[in-house]
Amino acid sequence: MNNSLTAFPPANILVVDDTPNNLRFLSNTLKQQGYKVRGVVDGKMALIVAKTALPDIILLDIKMPNMDGYEVCEHLKAAPETREIPVIFLSALNQAADKVKAFAVGGVDYIGKPFQVEEVLARVKNQLNLLAARSQIVRLNEELELRVKERTSQLEESNRKLQQEVLERQHAQQKLLFMAWHDHLTGLANRALFMTRLNQSLARVKRESNYQFAMLFLDLNRFRVINNSLGHLMGDELLVAIAKRLGPCVKSSHLLARLGGDEFTILLEEIDNLDEAIALAERIQKKLDISFKIAGQYEVFINASIGIVLANDTYDKPEQILRDADTAMYWAKDSDRRTCYQVFDQTMHAKALTRLQVETDLRLAIENQGLMLYYQPIVSLKTGKLAGFEALVRWRHPTRGVISPGHFIPVAEETGLIVPMGLWVLREACRQLREWQRQRLGADDTLTLSVNLSVKQFSQPQLVETVDRILAETELDGSHLKLEITESAIVDNAEIAIAILEQLKARQVQLSIDDFGTGYSSLSYLQQFPVDTLKIDRAFVSRIGRTDEDLKILRAIVTLAHSLGMRAIAEGIETPQQLAHLQKLGCEFGQGYFFARPLDIESAKELIAAQPCWYSNGLQRLGHCDL
User: Fold this and answer.
1) Confidence of residue 410 (pLDDT cuts 50, 70, 90)
2) Which helix H or strand E contains 213, and what residues bound it?
3) Stretch 213-226: mean pLDDT, rounded?
4) Which long-range contacts (CB under 8 A, 24 or more apart) does 238-243 make?
5) Which of 32, 325, 353, 587 has a CA that sits 20 to 30 A from residue 94's CA?
6) Distance between CA atoms of residues 30 and 37, nearest Å
7) Using CA atoms, how far apart are residues 194 and 588, in angstroms rounded to an integer?
8) Whether the Cβ atoms of residue 433 and residue 447 lie closer than 8 Å to each other
């Protein structure tokens, strides 16, 4: 009897995604592979379609309105008619807890967004192969029973055939079992097998007081760069090579697995102490220091960040151990060392929860207008008059009070929330300045408002259109807006940056390079940038008066700005001595606590109306003044 999988009609696939572009792209891609595809945009419709026209497999997004993917999966698994349908989650949520929850509610696989088409197709095919194999076993069993009934008169021949078919069924079962417990690419244990063994080890550590085990979580650094540059086939070949190199590092009693993507895990059973796990991490690092030869022509260097957990009986579920190992891995990845490992401790988990809460609260604050702007005066160092303000975002948390920008800006940068936050800051700052102009608070209507643009904001393809729209909405003349951009944002992609800056300049928007002198500057590009101002970082200002070398650096920056037809502005001015030196160097503008701290809206409004003038001793006089 032929035990190969029988050819089946095209599989029916249900795609659930509330983003029309994702839904359309996935549906078209799967149809091109010969699959029958239905697509829906919400969870309720997914449940109706799944029950009325049972699909072979479901691709399910997690973040959807009304009913998220987790709830949809739970409903599917609770219904007898849909319980056995495989569910593959598609989501941009890449935290370990999100992945653990996806498998806990019944998902068979998890693909992170942005997804790669090849990965989606491979995983869909893997699940369909599993279904086909199960159907094949059922068919073999049915045929076996039929033949026994039909050939009772030929007992010996029937028995011989029966034995043969039993062997074939066992072979099919073994093949199916291997497919279910192993990664199709590397042949290593897969997530399902690893979690099963991890659960067994956890149960044993609760039974035996002298038993210890540890877990290593490996994530390859810069693997996506290799995938994007050499292609996914080369990326797969690299993963296979890495798996082969890791194998000899691991004892036969331990378990090496590939969780998916570029993530590997190792279960170390029956160890004496934590030192064994650390020693293994160091061996792996040394192994990965040696380059890989891919396709016989590409020499590739890659390394890994490793998280280590020493398990104990305080853990209740294997998912908790995986979570903590993943947390430790991210601490290792965030460290200053190029390649490293990190042993988990409870403070990491606490900080991870705090960071997650900050991200959640910040997202709500952005959506619900929970942020506010403060305005720090910018003063002309020639006249002592108010020249403008820099808009600074602040967050007054409903329960934690005012949160320092140093705590929430890095979270916003990492999660991408800096883009909607920056959009709100830009719109609100322009609106506020225009309102002050309409109120005619002072005789001088030339005040400018400086707004910082993050690297991610500057890289947005619709930046210029966004600025146009905000200026139109707020009816603010572009000449009153000054955008502050860091050196790294423009030097890293200088040619594109020049084009964007020239478009902004054509709209009369003023441009300033922020924190000048703290990063890498290419003077050959700098002279091509249509920039109005170089902003001297407070680190240079704070060192005024310490050494002659510090003063020479300041003089060089101011001279450079003037030679390029730009003006200089110094931030962080706090003393009369600093102000005097900057005035002597010809620096045009300044800001800092010497003049004023960042002000709320009402205080800034009162300051404009007062028309102040600052003297070199820090005192103010209202109205006209001469320095």
Assistant:
1) confident
2) strand 213-221
3) 90
4) 238/292, 238/294, 238/300, 238/302, 239/185, 239/186, 240/185, 240/186, 241/292, 241/294, 242/288, 242/292, 242/302, 243/186, 243/187, 243/188
5) 32
6) 7
7) 64
8) yes
Question: What are the φ/ψ torsions at residue 59 (nearest 5 degrees)?
Answer: -100, 120
First to last CA, the chain: 102
Q: How many contiguous H segments (helices) and E segments (strands) does the chain have?
A: 23, 23
The span from the CA of 102 to the CA of 94, in Å, is 11
Q: For residue 612, what are its two tokens? A: 């102040």
Exposure class string for 285-316: b at 16+ Cβ within 10 A, else e: beebeeebebeeeeebebebbbbbbbbeeebe
In Å, what is the CA distance from 538 to each residue of 535, 584, 593?
9, 18, 11
Mean pLDDT of the chain: 86
Locus of tokens 């979580």: 217
| Helix, strand, or coil (residue 47) | helix
Q: Are 354 and 346 in contact (CB under 8 A)?
A: no
CA 351 to chain centre: 17
Please tell me whether residue 285 adopts helix, strand or coil conformation: helix
DSSP 59-111: EEES--SSS-HHHHHHHHHHSTTTTTS-EEEEES--SHHHHHHHHHTT-SEEE
Q: Which amino acid is at 65?
A: P
Q: What are phi and psi of 63, to 5 degrees?
A: -85, 105
pLDDT-derived band at 348 (thresholds 50, 70, 90) equals low
What is the per-residue pLDDT across 508-518, written as a single tens digit (0 to 9) for each? 999 998 877 65
Q: Amino acid identity of 23?
A: L
* Nearest in space to 470 (alpha carbons), one of 462, 387, 371: 462
Token pair listed for 317: 């579920």
Angle among Cα 94, 97, 101 to the nearest 5 degrees reads 105
CA distance 401 to 160: 81
pLDDT score for 31: 93
pTM above 0.70, yes or no: no
Say if residue 521's pLDDT is above 70: no
